[in-house]
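agent: user wants the structure for Fructosamine kinase from Ornithinimicrobium pekingense. delegating to structure tool.
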Amino acid sequence: MSATGTPSRTTHDGRPALTKRLRDAPPLFFEREAAGLRALAAAGARVPEVLAVDGTSITVSWVEQGHERTPASEERFGRELADLHRTTGERYGSVDGEPTAYLGACPVDLTPTDTWHESWVGRRVVPLARRAADEGRLDPATAVLAEDLDAARLGPPEPPTLVHGDLWGGNRLLDPQGRSWLIDPCAHYGHREVDLAMMQLFGGFSGRVFAAYVREHPLADGWEQRIPAYQTVPLLVHALLFGGGYGVQAGDALRAAVR
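agent: tool returned. relaying tokens verbatim.
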């Protein structure tokens, strides 16, 4: 889910850059994208440099694209993502304590919490499901299933892990050298299966990525069965933003997550 705004190629202090503008941007919209990019960069991820940001725009360094995905580039990305996921924090949620966040153009609550269940379910799944039901995007009888998504269904406890938070195929770029870059994050401290589930929601990542990841940073047993629990938030966001069949998909994910 790319951040809403009009992108254009620009220059900044003589450097090629990309600027996204949104005149009526909601509070901290671009500032939170900048905070996420900086957090990922500090953890060693390859991301565009934030050159300027204000309430209505963000300017980042230009990433030249031009390399097809190869077995080598996919395996390298899997290892790099595993390295990113070794960065941990003290609490779940925001990278810097600010609760305001956006998944695409949809506000989400990243208030720091002591438990992953409160962060993922209490502050995201349940409120988003209720809103989707209120707006007629999700069947109310299905929306209440969000309350049944207990901590056991989110997997064994792990330390709060820095995740990209919106890792669909369009938010990974390859430069002419075949190196992967991450863009448009909803970065936060959460569970690393959030990124892996999102990567499988809309495609764009080969099996080599996941195989390399698991070799480098093994996952707890049953992670494949937890994918629906971690696809609920992006599907609910899509239902709210775009409607269509996303509400049905979100309901299917909720039912699979709690069965």
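agent: one observation worth passing along. The first strand starts at residue 6 and ends at 12.
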